[in-house]
Amino acid sequence: MTEKPQVPAARNVLRILTLLASTDTPISARRITHELNLPRSTTYHLLRELEDSGYVVHLDHPSTYGLGLAAYQMSQAYTTQQPLVRMAAKSLEEIAAMAGGSTHLSRLAGTEVLYLHEARAPGAVSLVTVKGVRLPALRTASGRAMLAHLPESELRAIFATSENRPLYKDLQEQLEQVRERGWSTEIEEVARGQESIAVAVLDHLQRPAAAVAVTFPLSNDDAKKQQLVGALTETAEILKQKFFDKR
C-alpha cells in the first residue's frame, strides 16, 4: 500500500483555521502556538501566509488574529446545506408568514452578525439582512440576543478596541433586560418602518450558537408580538435540543 505523503504545513494551516473558527473572538499568536503546540516561527509564518490570502485578519491593540473574509466566503457555500439551516428553514418560513415579514438565522462573527438564512413572506419588503450580509451586532436584535448570553468579561474584551464601544456602554442595561426576558428587539434601527424580535439559540454549554429573528412592519399589536416571541422561542429550543444537546 502506498504511504500517504506528509504535508505538515498544509495540516497546520487547517489546524489554525479550525481553532480560529471554534473561538468567538480573535486570539493571539501566542495562544495559537500554545494550543496547537507549534514552533513560534512556524505559527507566525503560517499566519502571514493566511493573512496575505485573506483567510485571516490581524487586529492591533491587542495583537490578535481572526477569520478573514475569504474564510467566510468559503463557509457561505456550505451554509446552504448546513444542518442548522436545514433544521430551521421550515419554522422560519412559518413564522415569516405569521408576521407578514421576514425571518433570519444568524451567528456572531466577532463584533458583527453574519446572516446565514432568510425566509420572506409573500409581499414582504426586501431587507438588507439577506444571507451573507454582516451588520454590527449591537445594532441588531439578533446580535443583542446573542451578546446578552456572553460573560461580561468576554463582552468587554470584544468591544475593548471597537468603534462600537460607546454604543455597548449605552446598551449594557438593555442586554441585561434581554438576559432576563429571553428575547431582544429593535425598532427602525436597521430598516425604516420595520421592527425585529430575536431569540438566541444556545448550545450545550449555554453559549449563543445562533439566533432566530423576525422582522415585520411597525405594529401596536402586542398580542401578535407575544405570539411571535413564543414561536421564535420554541424554534430556538427545538434547534438546541436537536442540534446541540446530542453532542
From TrEMBL:
It holds the Pfam family IclR_C. One of its GO terms (biological process) is negative regulation of DNA-templated transcription. SMART domains: HTH_ICLR. One of its GO terms (molecular function) is DNA-binding transcription factor activity. Residues 70-245 form the IclR-ED domain. It comes from the Bacteria. Residues 7-69 form the HTH iclR-type domain. The keyword Transcription regulation applies. This is IclR family transcriptional regulator.
